[in-house]
């Protein structure tokens, strides 16, 4: 079991990685799914044998409120249909913590419930915010769960210049679900999950 990391260098490295993802040229991405709420693209990950996914959509709310619903805290568990439990393991600062959470089974339980332990960091970005995370090898795995691993991931949320009450939300996700899974099942689940994330988030913000 690893010790918890020094948060400052990890936060800096994570932020720089997400900024690099955010500057990847459009031509490198391939569309994986398109809905009325979001477009999802993918490209081969540099971190593992799966894909780095990019999701983007306009959300009809202000940046701070959107990010409060995404980052670790009281809102996320209420609206995210994939997340079943969430515990804050350690708080380093107001914007920096380690959380343990579990997700429901997917694709008729072809993908069994997963557990993750993630370092999470939220910081300013342009006129908005960036909330990012990465998994840690920390703690014992709960019975009946497979420990998944999130390679560097995060959400950029910035107000639309011509309509500041709405925000452009762009996410980068590369989740290694682990376990014996067909890659096609993982790819289907990831694209669907990201599209559903936007529709679930929009419903929560309106309630």
From TrEMBL:
It comes from Phasianus colchicus. This is StAR related lipid transfer domain containing 4. PROSITE patterns: START (PS50848). One of its GO terms (biological process) is cholesterol transport involved in cholesterol storage. One of its GO terms (cellular component) is endoplasmic reticulum. GO terms for molecular function: cholesterol binding; cholesterol transfer activity. InterPro entries: StarD4 (IPR042555), START-like_dom_sf (IPR023393), START_lipid-bd_dom (IPR002913). The gene is STARD4. It comes from the Eukaryota. Residues 10-207 form the START domain. Pfam families: START (PF01852).
């Amino acid at each position: 079991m690893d010790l918890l990391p020094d948060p400052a260098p990890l936060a800096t490295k994570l932020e720089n990685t997400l900024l690099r993802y955010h500057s990847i040229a459009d031509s490198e991405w391939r569309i994986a799914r398109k809905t009325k709420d979001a477009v999802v693209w993918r490209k081969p990950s540099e971190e593992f044998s799966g894909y780095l996914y990019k999701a983007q959509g306009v959300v009809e709310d202000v940046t701070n409120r959107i990010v409060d619903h995404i980052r670790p805290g009281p809102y996320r568990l209420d609206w995210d249909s994939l997340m079943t439990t969430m515990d804050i393991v350690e708080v380093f600062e107001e914007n920096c913590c380690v959380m343990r959470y579990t997700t429901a089974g997917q694709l008729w339980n072809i993908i069994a419930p997963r557990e993750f332990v993630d370092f999470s960091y939220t910081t300013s970005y342009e006129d908005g915010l960036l909330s990012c995370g990465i998994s840690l090898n920390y703690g014992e795995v709960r019975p009946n769960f497979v420990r998944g691993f999130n390679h560097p991931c995060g959400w950029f949320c910035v107000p639309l210049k011509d309509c500041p009450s709405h925000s452009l939300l762009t996410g980068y996700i590369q989740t290694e679900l682990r376990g014996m899974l067909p890659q096609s099942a993982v790819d289907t689940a990831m694209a669907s999950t990201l599209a559903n994330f936007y529709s679930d988030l929009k419903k929560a913000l309106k309630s």
